[in-house]
Amino acid sequence: MIRAFLLASTVLAAPAIAEEFKWAETTDPQTMDPHAVNSAAVLGFLNNVYEGLVRRGKDMTIEPALATSWEPIGAGEGWRFTLRQGVTFHDGAAFSADDVIFSYQRASDEASDTRSWFAPVSEVVKVDDYTIDIMTTAPNPIFPDSIANWMMMDSGWAEANNTTLPDKESGNYATLNTNGTGAFKVTAREPGLRTVLEPNGDWWDTAEHNITRAELTPIQNPATAVAALLSGDVDLINPVPIQDAERLAANDAVKVIQGIEARIIMLGFPHEADALKYSSETTDANPFADARVRQAVAHAVNVPAILQTIMRGNAEPASQLVSPAMRGYSASLADRPEYNPDQAKALLAEAGYPDGFSFGLKCPNDRYLNDEAVCQAVTGMLAQVGITAVLDAMPVQNYWPELREDNYDMYLLGWSPGTFDAEHPIRFLAATPNEEKKLGSWNFGGFSNPRVDELLPMIQSEIDDAKRQAMLDETTKILQDEVAYVPMYVQPLVWGAKSSVDLTQRPDNFFILRWVTVN
What we know:
single chain; 519 residues; alpha+beta; eleven-stranded mixed β-sheet; four-stranded antiparallel β-sheet; 15 helices; 19 strands; 26% helix
């Protein structure tokens, strides 16, 4: 059973002597550009460097950041944000409404991976140097929650360095360099090797940390990460290999911090593909276009066994695109498909594949906790019902381009809703992909359902909680009936730190340096 708690550190009134801090994570941030890649690895790291109008606190509630207050405009026409005065970027340039306008244009451009965040926005209006109106196409009660990771860039710095738009493929100046308003500055960036941060002495907020220098080192090998923690080479590792958690917890020099992440780990399908790409015999058809085949996959994967053997009991099964802790979770639809290989075989035969078929399964090997091991287990389970997967596991930096180029027959995906609301994955994963409307940007397989598309804007604008929940329940039922994805489990959080380190672990798995003290 998961120990469902978050470790919120008690910040000392007088922090201990200033210290250097080193930590290791499996995944190196793909870019330093806050608008180029919409992934937790990038956004989590850059929350230490860049800031938004709002931010999430230790308890995940929305609180003021570069905006001091916000209020709805009229009867739901939009939101007015009052900006914080006296804030400067790391290079000394003053922050103002012009930077918000620029950051909106940049982050919502088709070149940006964050453009889906702004699907409800019709325009952004500068009222004065420190007041911004963000107009929405319909009432949007959760809009402030939806922009917690929208980070502000300095328009002058971007123009001077020819980085007015992000370039996630080829990269530009903002890929390796930063200029935010946050608590830390990036002073050295060597992708795949190390990233160094130092405190921003001109930060507008009060520092709670006692760090003089911080260094992130990506370590993909779990045993190497554990050894680095035990030897004192690093002060924190994320994640702790599940199999080592108990051993580390028994060591007085270190501590294990456990919680539940907001992330759902699921299997995705090529809904709109005409044929499989990696099958040795089924080359003129796409079996996964048939909901019965997708349902067969759901019954063939033994999720309880994965949780027991690979996750060592440190994860919970999932039936939806969000966990029970998220707003909008459908409690009446909590049951997930039972493990039933006989039913899976019957469904395959009914769909016209009594002898099964072969296909290609793409999987990252350094993005999620035990991701490759989970994919290996899934491969074995599917083989028991006649579906033969050829597993191709790779580093995440190679993985996302493969998915965006549709180079898969099935894939593994983890999704953590940035708004902590069930609307979020519907917008990104289940809405019919539409660049103009900024919808479905992570719906790689092209799942499409007219009723889901019809319900989404209604969900976004409904202020009556009961009516909104009914629409979310209907959407969840559609996604379950059509097996748009196969949700498997809620990923656990398992961090390891020196016993001298105090920190806060949030369920979005963002590591926030400004809450770290080394005693």
